[in-house]
Task: structure prediction
Amino acid sequence: MIAQTVEARQGYKNIWVVAEVLEGQVQKVSYELLGAARTLADARKSELWCVVLGDGISKAAVEMISYGADTVLVVDDPRLAYFIDEDQASVLVHLLRKHKPEVMICGATTRGRALIPRVAVLASCGLTADCTGLSIDLDNGDLLQTRPAFGGNIMATIRCSNHRPQLATVRPRVMNALEPDPSRIGRVIIETMLEGEATKLKKVIEIFHDPENAINLADARFIIAGGRSMKGAEGFKMLKRLADRVGGAVGASRAAVDSGWVPYSHQVGQTGQTVQASVYVACGISGQIQHLVGMQSCDYIIAIDKNPDTPMMQLADVAIVGDLFEIVPRLLEELPKT
Ligand SMILES: Cc1cc2nc3c(=O)[nH]c(=O)nc-3n(C[C@H](O)[C@H](O)[C@H](O)COP(=O)(O)OP(=O)(O)OC[C@H]3O[C@@H](n4cnc5c(N)ncnc54)[C@H](O)[C@@H]3O)c2cc1C
Result:
């Protein structure tokens, strides 16, 4: 047990970010979190620490200083070459007990969502998942964690006053990374993975890439998204042709994903991905709040819908009223084949 009383808050200090490393590469969300956490640390007059776990990641660790970290805690161990949530959780809990951060944040990515709840249970502290906004109470260090609640209909701000450390996962693409500053100076602390921290519960036998489902919606500049109106997987093939024509990716509403027409990796929204494309084309997506929270910060939104009064049509920069099964084929005819 780490801390259960208000008094026990004493001794907890600094803001931590857990970096996400995939095949040796630090993921963009880590830089975004450092940008947000830098603001929190400055406001709280504390240090910003970044935890980097992996194999052969020492160079990446130094880079985190240029993105805002004061201290980087590195555990560089071949046993961390592959993401095994039980092992990473054991290592993190050991570090939490040793260094006692006031706050620890991690990306609300597939990995972060697997890892941080385990840490919260092992460390007997709370967790606010999927935050879209963070600030800090300067009087007592309570993290003010904002996230959609009640099906996305309200935004709730949650504080965890009686437990330390405070854990939160934060959605990718909602915080801004700082410009890297190679002249920043920080320190690197090398930690070691203890014998018992490799739980041996799972063993990675083979890694394979599935090009069919490997889409990177979060980084796509053009997204062509479809909803319940697509009527089936065939409809999504038409959207894929359009996406290919403009070098974009296919997105989907939950209604389309739940219908089994397109994999979950394409889902945009509260329980899917948050995207920030330059152009988002919504084909027959009504724009319920749970969808809008995932795409409303796209630069330019084009909506195609039979009904001109939907929330999506009201939000769009360009709203095309009509049948998408007539409009999309016409767009395909007009756009040059590459
Ligand atoms: C807790 C919770 C989490 C959720 N998370 C998500 C999420 O992450 N992402 C998400 O998307 N949803 C999410 N939802 C579901 C969300 O509330 C909506 O049900 C869903 O987004 C609706 O999908 P849709 O717009 O495709 O379908 P609909 O709302 O049915 O809209 C279909 C639209 O297509 C139009 N249309 C029909 N035929 C045509 C045609 N031929 N040409 C042109 N337009 C046509 C209709 O006029 C309509 O506007 C969540 C719900 C809950 C409760």
